[in-house]
Amino acid sequence: MDKIIVLDFGSQYSHLICRRIRNFAVYAELVPYNIPFIKLKQMKPKGIILSGSPSSIYDDKHPIPEKHIFDSGIPILGICYGHQLIVNNFGGVVKDANKEYGSAMLSIKNNSDLLSNIGKNTRAWMSHGDEAIKIPHGFEITASTSRSHAAVIENTTKFIYGVQFHPEVVHTDHGIQILKNFVLKICLAKKEWNMKNFIDDTIKEISKITGDVICGVSGGIDSTVTALLIHKSIGNRLKCIFIDNGLLRIDEVKSVQEIFSKMGIQIITINAQKRFLDQLKNIHDPEKKRMVIGEEFVKIFSAYANKNKNLKWLAQGTLYPDVIESGISHGPSSVIKTHHNVGGIPNWLTLKILEPIRDLYKDDVRKIAKIFNVPDNIINRHPFPGPGLAVRIIGEVTRKKLRIVRFASRIVEEELMKSKIYDTVWQAYAALGDDRATGVSGDKRKIGNIVMIRVVNSTDAMTADWTRLPYKILERISNRITNEIDEVTWVSYIISSKPPATIEPQ
Ligand code: XMP
Questions:
Q1: Distance, CA 248 to ligand 1 centroid (Å)?
Q2: By Cβ atoms counted within 10 A, which residue in 34, 220, 385, 424 is the most buried?
Q3: Top-tier CATH class for 195-379
Q4: Nearest C-alpha neighbor of 374 from the set 240, 254, 220
């Protein structure tokens, strides 16, 4: 399959470049900027994109790729910092000059393949401190803004292009067309990326493995699709394990068992509530919680595998955003949160890891689920984190806090379903910390817990916006929580988007 490789220099938008390209059916993959050239060549990219970066090429330790990529003959598009790397590499001059942030009007001067079908003037999103003031020999300037003379440069003999702005963000009016021009017209990549092909290729690959596979399932769409893909590849050599870690929602065990029995896949449920809750005692730090939970999961899988000598693989429903946010996939981006299934694998584990949907976004996974005729109520189920309610409880996880969060979350879900909002939002739940607030009950003063309600809209969990719920619904949720859960005196609604917040509080 034709692919575009995006070298990640640490920009917050790097992953978006891949996403945009995949959306027009070409496979794109993010790799660290310092990937050895030999390895990069083995991936046979049709084109290479150099992402932006928070660094300046004047920083002492600024990230630079292997030099060979510039004379590989593979088409290259540099974006922002990537554009400046190109200028610098070919003998031009970049200076800390005209800072330019936000929207700018791009005037296109000459005909170019890269800028075709976007008109003569268009809005482009700028975010840079340095600027190319002298372009290298062999390059031509094809578009400028009032503050950035060399906003787009091209060397059509070497197939090397640089844009100072960010075509991957929505604020660049024709950004997607520019990426399409590069990928389809210049790199001549074929549109071969779709979920049907992905399923066929994945099943073919998994069918080749030797040994049985153990798969942790949770009833969520990711592990369900992972299990389905493996089941379709190796049938009953797949053993699905559902661990009740004591951090689940109300009736979750029963509903997961029903889901899998409807799909004809047998699951083994292990009650491990006590051991998880014991391990979580006195732990307040969110990352530590994730590590403890991840390790406990793996210990249980390992113990099960030790009793069954044919088991060689541990399958997980890891998604692309999990990989990116755990800082595993690439170089300079910082770890946002260690998602338990990518960060918490201890090095003593002897099972090999199988992650068939590791390159996919959530909406891709939903498409596969539809192809597999998974019922809508499972497809539309909100994502639920692997470490469960532990990341919705700030501070130590206790049975009392778990009980409050469970009931409050049930109320939030019921009210959103009643008002037909549940399916329109990304996630909706209740969270709890240790703060307490004064209330009054039956004319008596009462100190109780504060429940936080979080409802967000998102398309891939990389960014999210808080949902403007109608006051009437908020009022109903608040009244029910304070009336039905004795320990709660206050209810708050979280109005922070991601960034700067994250979706889960821990
Ligand atoms: P954050 O809180 O990082 O969440 O904005 C992004 C998405 O990922 C889910 N999430 C997790 N999923 N293991 C998971 O399987 C985890 O450790 C984890 N942490 C967050 C979260 O629910 C949201 O959909």
A1: 15
A2: 385
A3: alpha beta
A4: 220
Instruction: Please identify, by atom number, the ligand 1 atom nearest to the C-alpha of residue 222.
Output: 15
CA 18, 24, 25, 26 torsion-angle sign:
negative
**Ligand 1 atom nearest to CA at 505:** 2
Binding pocket residue ranges, ligand 1, CB within 6 Å: 290, 325, 336-337, 339-341, 383, 385-387, 391, 427, 461, 498, 502-504
Pocket test for ligand 1, best of 289, 316, 504, 506 (most atoms within 8 A of CB): 504
Instruction: For the chain, give the mean pLDDT.
Output: 91
Q: How far is the centre of ligand 1, averaged over its atoms, from the C-alpha of 506 (Å)?
A: 9
The per-residue pLDDT for range 241-286, each reduced to its tens digit, is 999 999 999 999 999 999 899 899 999 999 999 999 999 999 999 9
Quick count: other Cβ atoms within 10 Å of Cβ 421? Answer: 16
How is residue 187 written in tokens? Answer: 């790199």
Query: How much distance in Å is there from the Cα of 362 to the middle of ligand 1?
Result: 12
For a substitution probing ligand 1, which of 290, 426, 494, 503 has the most ligand atoms within 8 Å of its CB?
Answer: 503
CA distance 498 to 480: 28
As annotated, the active-site residues are 80, 166, 168
Domains 3-186 and 393-493 share a fold: no
Count of C-beta atoms within a 10 Å radius of residue 23: 15
pLDDT for residue 347: 67
Give 160-186 pLDDT, tens digit per residue. Answer: 999 999 999 888 999 999 999 999 999
Please state, for a pLDDT cut of 90, what percent of the chain lies above it.
Answer: 73
For residue 221, the CA-to-ligand 1 centroid distance in Å is 13
Two structure tokens written together for 215: 């798969």
Contact 403, 273 (CB under 8 A): no
Q: Is pLDDT of 335 > 60?
A: no
The model's pTM is 0.75
